[in-house]
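Table S2 (continued). Query chain:
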Amino acid sequence: MVWSAVISSLIAFIIFVVLIFSFKALLKRNESGFMHLLLALMFTCWLPIPLAVQKALGHPEPLLIGTGFGMLSLILLVFTMVLQASHLSYSAKQAMNHNQALWQERDNWMLGGMLAGTTELFADFLKGVWTVFLTVAFFAKGHSVMGVVGIIYSIVGVISVLLLINQTVVKEMPILAKLQSKLGFVYHNLETFVWYMVLTFWLVLCS
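Corresponding output:
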C-alpha cells in the first residue's frame, strides 16, 4: 500500500508541475475551470497518503483519529475544486455570449463567498488537526526530524484557524484580512504540495 501511495503522490507531483508551467497560459485562455479540475485530480492522488503514513508508523491507535481528519481535509478540497471547476467553465462559456461583467460578478460571489475561501481554510484547519496527531506520533516513534516539520505545519494550521475565524466574522481584523489577500491561491496550494511531498519522501525512506 505504501508504494501505491508513493506512486499516486508522484502523479500529483507531475500534475502540480504541469500547473506551475501552464498557469499563466491557462489564465490567459480563461481556462480556470480546467485548472481547478487538475487541482481536484492532484488532491485525489494524495488521498492514500494519510493511510500510508499511518501504516508506516505501525498503526498507532490515536493516529487513526488524525488520519480521519487528514482524509476529510482532502475530500473537502476535492469536492470544492470540482464545484469551482464546474462553475468557472460554465461561467466562461456564458460570458462569451452574454454580459461578461455580470458573470464576473457571479464568479466573485461564488468563489469569494461560497466555494473557495472559507471551505479551503476549513480544509487547512482539518489538515492542521491531522498534523498535530502526526507530530505526536513522529516523536513517539523516534522520527524527530519529521516531528519538527510537523510542529512547523501545526503553526501553519493555527494561522489557518485565525484566517478562517476572521473570514467568517462580520468585523474582520485588518491585519488578518491583509495577510489572507497576500497569501492567496498560490500559497494555499504550494504549502499543501510541500507538505505531501515531504510525507512522500519520508515514506520512500521508510520503505
